Amino acid sequence: MKTTVYKSEEGRRIVEDRCRDILESFGTLPFRQRFVPTPFGSTHVLEFGGTGTPLVMLHGSISNSAVWLGVVRDFVDRFSVYCLDIPGEPGLSEPRRMALSGEEPARWLVSVMDGLGIPAAAFLAMSMGSWYALKLAVTEPGRVLALSMITAGGLARQRLGFLFRAAVCLMLGGWGKKKLSRMVYHRAEVPPEVLEYQDLVTSHFNPLMEPLPLLSDEELRRLAMPVQYFGGDRDVLLDTARSARRLRELLPRAEVHVLEDTGHVIVDRFIEARDFLAKSAAAHLRGSTSSGETYRPPKG
Q1: Do residues 32 and 23 make contact, with C-beta atoms less than 8 angstroms apart?
Q2: Please, is 148 exposed, middle or buried when counting C-beta atoms within 10 Å of its C-beta (0-12, 13-18, 19+)?
Q3: 69-75, long-range: CB within 8 Å, 24+ apart, which pairs?
Q4: What predicted TM-score, i.e. pTM, was given to this entire model?
Q5: Are 81 and 47 in contact (CB under 8 A)?
Q6: For residue 228, what are the CA distances in angstroms to 117, 128, 145, 148, 163?
Q7: Which residue in 13, 40, 192, 251 is a FRET match for 201, CA 20 to 30 A apart?
Q8: 9-286 in CATH: which number?
Q9: Domain residues of the chain, as ranges?
């Protein structure tokens, strides 16, 4: 696996400086920046105060913890929120990727949670971040109280044709990058400043081109915690239909949503995720799931 994630040291500086500028300009809520040492290098964390259940947020590929800044205000009244920069992605964590085929992703998350003093947490994750959360949930299920996934890798094979098209688009300059954005976002409305930032990142960053390893049926059956999933039926990266089918077959109590005319990026389901996680985590902490009460997802 390529461990050099930036095209140059100058590119790394430009991207990391822009990350810092975005965080410094965020004045909606107070937060604390922490750098947690792990066996896989330093991990950058945004910590939003609160006394509620710990909630870990994990971003997707070619992104970082700043992606949550627009929605975190909806969570801080119910959770103590920790937004992590995944190592090897364009944030402020160690710019070196872990080996995805082994246990390093789960070990990394355990070490971050230990460093933050979090025995267990609810998880809200996107795409590749969902894959990391799933790896932790099947390896250390006691660390995950509930899991909500806004799309998820690892449930079905990635569309390798898209990886090829993405590589071609990235070589075609500005026109190719715009075409790639249209494929990924589909009908989602994305602020111009987000598109501008992504253009900056893709100019200096080598995205992960390795398909995320699939989780086995045996692994998925280990997920005893409440699970929620959202996927778009027009997702060009991930096979939503196959992902939803596996979850329904292997985890019949999971809450599974396939959204019509929706691409890979889903921007309007965070309130549903918040309510699901708050209810599920509270039930878990009360001990209701271990005392025989059956978790029943809401209809719809």
Answers
A1: no
A2: buried
A3: 69/22, 69/26, 69/28, 71/270, 72/29, 72/48, 73/28, 73/29, 74/270, 74/271, 74/274, 75/48, 75/124, 75/274
A4: 0.88
A5: yes
A6: 25, 16, 12, 5, 26
A7: 40
A8: 3.40.50.1820
A9: 9-286
